[in-house]
Amino acid sequence: MNKKELRKYAINLRKNLSYNKNQLEKDVLDIIGDKKNIAIYYPLEFEIDLLFLKKYDLNLCFPKTDGTNLKFFLNPTQFKKGNFNVLEPIDGTLISSKDIDIMFVPALIINERNYRIGYGKGYYDRYLKNTNVKTIGICYKDLYLDFLEEENDVKLGGVILCKQ
């Protein structure tokens, strides 16, 4: 299957998938350790949800699209639907990638070489291409599939595979 077909497959399959939220929380907190500036995302329906991190003493950063690019905002309190019906921050402080300790990146599919398939617009790949931020992909274990990455794809630093 090509990436377009894999995206469609993943979007349909994950509607029937679930994951162990307690295990996810443990895995995420183990990775975070004593770090403070943590980039996450506001989940779409059927995406793996990291919003439980709000209950911890962390500085959470959320992405916002700006043209064809992403910007991250620190500790936003208000969100509104932006491009692609994703909730994006409307307040908070713009933060540089060099000030983000760990970025948890959503993925439809991740392969064994730690490359991801997202929704196909390239926002995360463009953002991560020129940064050194530590990245952790978040994906359902059932969507840990093989595919050939492309030239513009950016390798993730690590992966959490969520399963029931």
- Under CATH, the topology is which? Rossmann fold
Q: Are there runs of 5+ residues with pLDDT below 50, and where?
A: none
Largest sheet, in brief, is: 7 strands, mixed
Give the total of beta strands: 11
Radius of gyration, rounded?
15 Å
The overall number of domains is: 1
Walkthrough of the structure:
- There is one protein chain.
- With 164 residues, the chain is α/β, with parallel strands linked by helices.
- It has one domain: NagB/RpiA/CoA transferase-like (Rossmann fold, 3-Layer(aba) Sandwich).
- The chain contains three helices and eleven strands; from the N terminus they run H-H-E-E-E-E-E-E-E-E-E-H-E-E.
- The strands form three sheets. It has a seven-stranded mixed beta sheet with strand order 6-3-2-1-7-10-11.
- Strand 2 and strand 3 form a beta hairpin.
- The longest helix has 12 residues.
- The protein is globular and about 40 Å long.
- It starts with a helix and ends with a strand.
- The relative contact order is 0.20.
Offer a concise description of the structure.
With 164 residues, the chain is α/β, with parallel strands linked by helices.
